Amino acid sequence: MTQIMLFNSKDDQNIENTDKERSPDHLPFNQNFIFQLAEIINLRYNNPHEGSYVNDLRKSGLNKIAQKVGEEAVETVIAALNDTEQEFIGETADLIFHLLVLLREKNVSLQMVTDKLLQRHHEYQK
């Protein structure tokens, strides 16, 4: 399991709007957080900081990022079959994070993917 530190710069903290007094187990649901996370990744790409995990991935290149997504996908499947719910959730979070990095590397926005999902939904509703 990869531990990812998301908010370690002032730019990142400006995006985060949740109540800082809440513990991680009691954070309010934020349906827009995945878009905020994509924006944090975008900020890290545009303003690389030494020691940033996103910057390390960016420097490793497309093949390594794609490989990492594959590894996380396999770990997610294994966790779904064998591990606890919390381990499955953790692996799923890792997969989504790395997929967002891959999207950024390919210059594909999360909105583009969302639009495709919405288009498919409407096509299948007919």
TrEMBL record:
<keyword id="KW-0963">Cytoplasm</keyword>
<dbReference type="GO" id="GO:0000105">
    <property type="term" value="P:L-histidine biosynthetic process"/>
</dbReference>
<dbReference type="GO" id="GO:0005524">
    <property type="term" value="F:ATP binding"/>
</dbReference>
<keyword id="KW-0028">Amino-acid biosynthesis</keyword>
<dbReference type="InterPro" id="IPR021130">
    <property type="entry name" value="PRib-ATP_PPHydrolase-like"/>
</dbReference>
<dbReference type="Pfam" id="PF01503">
    <property type="entry name" value="PRA-PH"/>
</dbReference>
<dbReference type="InterPro" id="IPR008179">
    <property type="entry name" value="HisE"/>
</dbReference>
<dbReference type="GO" id="GO:0004636">
    <property type="term" value="F:phosphoribosyl-ATP diphosphatase activity"/>
</dbReference>
<protein>
    <recommendedName>
        <fullName>Phosphoribosyl-ATP pyrophosphatase</fullName>
        <ecNumber>3.6.1.31</ecNumber>
    </recommendedName>
</protein>
<comment type="pathway">
    <text>Amino-acid biosynthesis; L-histidine biosynthesis; L-histidine from 5-phospho-alpha-D-ribose 1-diphosphate: step 2/9.</text>
</comment>
<comment type="similarity">
    <text>Belongs to the PRA-PH family.</text>
</comment>
<keyword id="KW-0067">ATP-binding</keyword>
<keyword id="KW-0368">Histidine biosynthesis</keyword>
<dbReference type="GO" id="GO:0005737">
    <property type="term" value="C:cytoplasm"/>
</dbReference>
<keyword id="KW-0378">Hydrolase</keyword>
<keyword id="KW-0547">Nucleotide-binding</keyword>
